[in-house]
Design a protein that fits this description.
The complex is a heterotrimer. Chain A is mostly helical. Chain A is built from eleven helices and one strand; from the N terminus they run βααααααααααα. In chain A, helix 1 packs antiparallel against helix 2. Chain B is α/β, with parallel strands linked by helices. Among the domains of chain B are: 203 residues, Dimethylsulfoxide Reductase, domain 2 (3-Layer(aba) Sandwich); 126 residues, Barwin-like endoglucanases (Beta Barrel). Helices cover 33% and strands 16% of the residues of chain B. Chain B has 26 helices and 27 strands. In chain B, strand 6, helix 6 and strand 7 form a beta-alpha-beta unit. Chain B starts with a helix and ends with a strand. The chains are: A mainly alpha, B alpha/beta, C alpha+beta. The interface between A and B is small, with 5 and 7 residues. Strand 1 of chain A pairs antiparallel with strand 2 of chain C.
Amino acid sequence: MTPIEVISTARSPVTDPHVHVWGWEIPVYLFLGGLTAGLMILSGYALWRGRRNPRPEASFALASSGLFGVGLVTISLGMVALFLDLVHKPYVWRLYLTFEPTSPMSWGSWILLLVYPVLALGVLLDPPRVLRERVPAVARLRRLADSDRARRWFGLVSIAVGVGLGAYTGLLLSSLGARPMWSSSVLAPLFLVSGLSTAAAFAHWVTPVPEESEQLARLDNALIVAELAMLAFFLIGLVSSTEVHARAAALLLGGPYTAVFWVGVVGLGLVVPLVIQSLVVTRRVAHTPLAPILVLLGGLVLRFVLVSAGQISHWSRL
Amino acid sequence: MNLSRRRFLKIAGAGAAVAATATGGLVALGRSGAAAAPRERGLRTVPTFCDVCFWKCNAIATVRDGALWKIEGNPIDPLSNGRLCPRGTGGVGAVSDPDRLRTPLLRASVRGEERWTAVTWDEALGYIAEKMQDIKAKYGPEAVAMFSHGLGGAFLKHTLKAYGAINLAAPSFAQCRGPRDVGFELTFGEGIGSPERTDIANARCLVLIGSHLGENMHNSQVQELAEAVGRGATIIVADPRFSIAASKAKHYLPVKPGTDLALLLAWMNVLVAERLYDQDYVAAHGFGFDAFAAAIASYTPEWAYPETGIAPEVIRETAREMARHRPATLVHPGRHSTWYGDDAQRSRAIALLNALLGSWGRKGGFYTPASMTVPGYPYPPYPRSGRAKVDNPDHKYPFASEAITTGIRDATISGQPYPIKGWWVYATNLLQALPDQAATIEAIQQLDLLAVVDVVGSETAGWADVVLPEATYLERYDDLNVELFRQPFVALRQPVVEPPHDQKANWWIARELALKLDLAAFYPWTTIEEYLDHRLRGAGLSLAELQTKGLVRGAPQPIYYEDGVPPTFPTPSQKIEFYSVQLEQKGFDPVPRYTPPDPGPPGAFRLLFGRSPVHTFSRTQTNPILAQAMTENELWVNASVAQRLGLATGQRVRLRNQDGVRSDFAIKVRATEAIRPDCVYMVHGFGHTAGMLRHARGRGASDAQLITAYKTDPLMGGTGMNVNFVTIEQEA
Amino acid sequence: MSRLAMVIDTRRCVGCQDCVVACKTENQTPEGFNRDWITYITKGRFPTLSMSIQSERCNHCDDPPCVSCCPTGASHVHDFGGIVLVDKDECIGCKACVASCPYDARYMHPDGYADKCTFCVHRVEHGQDPACVSVCPTHCMYFGDLDDPESEVSKLLASRKHYSLLPEAGTKPRIFYLE
């Protein structure tokens, strides 16, 4: 091997020694965005299927307003994180003076504009009593929300917007081709499935309806399996691509991120909850919040790993 | 960032009293003399010439809305061709340098503690004048010596000569180019000069021996080097380090440090043995060729191989390559040539090699610089001294053609042949420039007065009794630059902006001092404009013209023998002295003779140092623009050696030299294939210890600190400094 | 429509950083940030070595990912010569463009916006060369229009062997290096 020595005088804080423009805010936003998307898709699906809240009051059941309310909170927290990441904050309104069709971030900013009304309507479908009693208009709206047709249509809208939100978080990274780790078409579906999985885990954890618990545990198991498969495709894709991409994969397969990826994401975030929930659905152990919490944390760690390692991955100059 | 800051604080803490006490002085420095002026709008350009190094490129500075913006080469300048080097381009940083001296300072405690009292110019110069009069009364005016660097010292020298001082020296001779000039003077009767009379632009073969043009950023030379490379000229580089120039070379010869003379002798041996030299040229202009040929007959490439590490066939091939392109083969004489103590003889060998190739006086070799006449100002004659200069008593170094700094230092320490009690130091950092810092400090301790004029507070300023803050070159007039070059010119330096604090131009300082010393007769002019205009009118020019153009070029003249320059050699024989009778008469080798270098202690590495293209000496490390381009120096260590020692690139180490001196600060390792395993290399000028250089202190290591040993050139008193050896100590 | 480009002769370049310093003073870039930089690549074992020196900066790509990923249009291709620029008043500081550049040519200005080489558009529009080109003491840099077959850059590229950086990243860079 011929020794090669590369010396660069490039010295800018965010690119030296490698790009590190994004800290905790973006992974947190990507996680919360994915979770919100998953909640919208799951609840939307339940509504489309004509399911109704079996409880007398608004609840965390799939077809009630609770999860939409949670979505409002999670997406808002995500937006706060996103906003904190922006360095030119007073200029944020510039996002809404234009639509840039090639920019996933522009798509995302407009999708976020749709997310809020959908989540708000979701809350009004089954408004909590306080809201109903204080605001007469809400009570009147409820009669419309009782319409099966309206509920099914709304369910479809919620699914569509949720899929947009969930996929864009993956597209956002994969459009940045300068980072070989992110230049994978699997990233968008992976983030979508992960968002769904975390949403299913959350719903499983909070639903007051025993049958839903059961269904969501099974669904989450399927989603975890799908996510594991996506991760496998993701890694295989990188490894079998150019040497640059293989080196990017090596960050996870035998580099600085190997431990946190395999233990934090694959082990504790996916395999362990899959095992627990397999035991749950086969009635060998009782439902436990442990598994969903692990799935949620795993989803968060996944974003941290991919955002962080992705920034280190680089087209070699040699 | 945090780590390095903590590390710095730790170092600063360990640096004991010096660092702590420095702060007191710096508070005083905070006083600003800047006055609020009505704000200037728009763009304004001012032609002037650069002072970041001694090349003095002509430039045009641009002021935007009253603030200095940028400086670019003057398109009519033959030196820069309108393009400055990075230091020149970054020269604007000298004005905004956060560590600039702001006000005159008087020492407030023991020497070297860097505790100061801020004083007025009147107080500072009054104090100095009184001390100078005391010294004159007690020891005579010869007891005040001066060290200076560059054109800016002209007026101070004038004042001191008027006062009666005779001991004036610059490190540029005995610590830099002296041996080279002496070696060429002994051979051709003339030195190389500055800017060098090397015709790189037209060379078809360029030979560089340890000269690292490209890192050594002498503007015209680097431009011509690029031109030569672009034209496909053959470059031959002999250097222990794979320099930038080496990377452009067809032949890179990784010569063992200290054996360059053996390589040169072997090259000459091949040229003579194979009769490849310019026989007509040698027959026409040479003196003592047969004796020379006999003297070098034994220096065959086979003989040189074990000395230099360069294979005989490579020596032969490169010698033939040189012969193929003669007379347009330029064996570059280098500039900084105080390496091993046999430097004048090595330079003489370079001169002789050029003589064999017939390149002296010829196109592609050494041209004859063209000159123009700008008369000096008519001053009264300086007082005559009955005493000889102290730097070279009894002509111990018979061929020293300029004053020897270290000779003045020795006299200051010993008091012989007579005491030296006052030092003026202008724009040179003696502690980084002279070898053996302890001796310099010992000499300073003998003084009744040490006055330092500089732009930033160097280590030497830190030891001063009085520190005088000078306006930067962008804020002052200086004397005219009447330049010898391919085409001569006269150039003006003029202020672009006002000094931001209480800094003053050197001419003002020199004049005020003269007035305080009752030497008004030597300053018949009141303003510098008056002086400059008077001189320029003597040459048929005017200050107004120079203020507009920056420079005026003289008439083109022939510069090559082939164009009609008469070949003259002001040597004793009036010929090129292949054999030097004057050397023989003084007991030296009439033809250079090789002595192997001291290999140094086992396990130690020879310490080599050189230049960076973005810094000049130890003067520019606090310039905020240049500091960004290079913040600290690195220690080049051969990659295999580094592996054996367990050193990795980026790791910080300290160096300990053969005399047990340990570097004050840690330096980053650069483990690289690009250097021989028997030496290490660093860029000179870093590792500052001066408390007033807050933005440079502790960054990198100082080669000067580790150069405790030096070998004096017996011909001319130059201090060979590449004779120190270091071991590498890992930082805990 | 012209396509401005830079051609750099690596044989002549000595890596002195004059281009870096000139950019700094011309454009008053903030301390610690550089719009251009030098890469020195040394290959081989002592003493059989080779070194290439590259003055690098934004490649003003024909297919600039920094422009396509920008959510506000702040990163844009300028009408004049296809220079890739950032309008700091439209930039929200999302940093996607910084991450999207395979050359790491962008940085976040301390004032909050993405910043990078502008090919000195303020000079180029007045017929001057970019500061780095005009200052270079080795005359190793050339600037001109790729679409003009008579331009110096076109002629150099037609007559001399050259390469660009990371062509495999697919951005069609417009800085070329003569071998």
